[in-house]
From TrEMBL:
The keyword Chaperone does not apply. This is NAD(P)H-dependent oxidoreductase. PANTHER family: NAD P H OXIDOREDUCTASE-RELATED, NAD(P)H DEHYDROGENASE [QUINONE] 1 ISOFORM 1. It comes from Candidatus Olsenella pullistercoris. Signal peptide: none annotated. Residues 9-179 form the Flavodoxin-like fold domain. One of its GO terms (cellular component) is cytosol.
């Protein structure tokens, strides 16, 4: 397990291909809130980095050894090792995180780095990550996703995957019904996101 850095640091994993998107505005609100709170942070911009989420045949052949063949994966692991908090900012596509984020999990969370096999489940090695927050936007209303579509991001991503990896608790924050939302509603949610992060000093 990586040692926790002396100064609290947040790693933001951002996933959206268009800088004019509402997701990019969410990223800016997250950064602004953390800056106002005096927290150091790094941004991992998957599209800007040209990250390839699909695992290659060569990568899979070395997977069980925990070997990273992609230099970006090595860089992302170094960033994650410096952090004590993780924030993911992305859209919801078909009731889940996009393939780019799923690929980040597949390729970065290598055995030996983030988990060890025990024969009775995984032994997570990311205990230095004290909290995971996922900020998303969706066409579906948030309550509908929680109550009718299985609450997958909170249940599978945060409460299962990151829990297995040893991370602390976390929460899913979603702006639902974006297609029918007004500029005022979107502005209010951005202010709420920034305000909540600012208050977490």
């Amino acid at each position: 397990m990586a040692e926790k850095s002396a100064e609290p640091t947040t790693l933001i994993v951002y996933c959206h291909p268009w800088e004019g998107s509402f997701n990019h505005a969410v990223l800016e609100a997250v950064c602004a809130g953390l800056a106002r709170a005096g927290r150091a942070f790094e941004v991992c911009d998957l599209y800007a980095d040209g990250f390839e989420p699909a695992m290659t045949r060569e990568e899979l052949a070395r997977y069980s050894e925990g070997v990273a063949l992609d230099p970006l994966v090595t860089r992302y692991q170094e960033q994650l090792s410096r952090a004590d908090r993780l924030v993911i900012v992305s859209p919801v596509w078909w009731n889940d995180l996009p393939a780019m984020v799923r690929g980040w999990l597949d390729k970065v969370m290598l055995p030996g780095f983030s988990w060890d096999a025990t024969g009775a489940g995984l032994a997570g090695k990311l205990q230095h990550i004290e909290r995971v927050d996922v900020y998303t936007t969706s066409s579906n209303p948030t309550d509908y996703m929680r109550e009718r579509l299985g609450n997958g991001i909170q249940g599978t991503v945060i409460d299962a995957t990151f829990w297995q990896l040893g991370c602390g608790g976390g929460a899913w924050h979603n702006f639902g019904g974006i297609d029918a939302s007004t500029p005022e509603q979107r502005a209010a949610w951005l202010a709420q996101v920034e305000g909540e992060l600012t208050e977490e000093r």
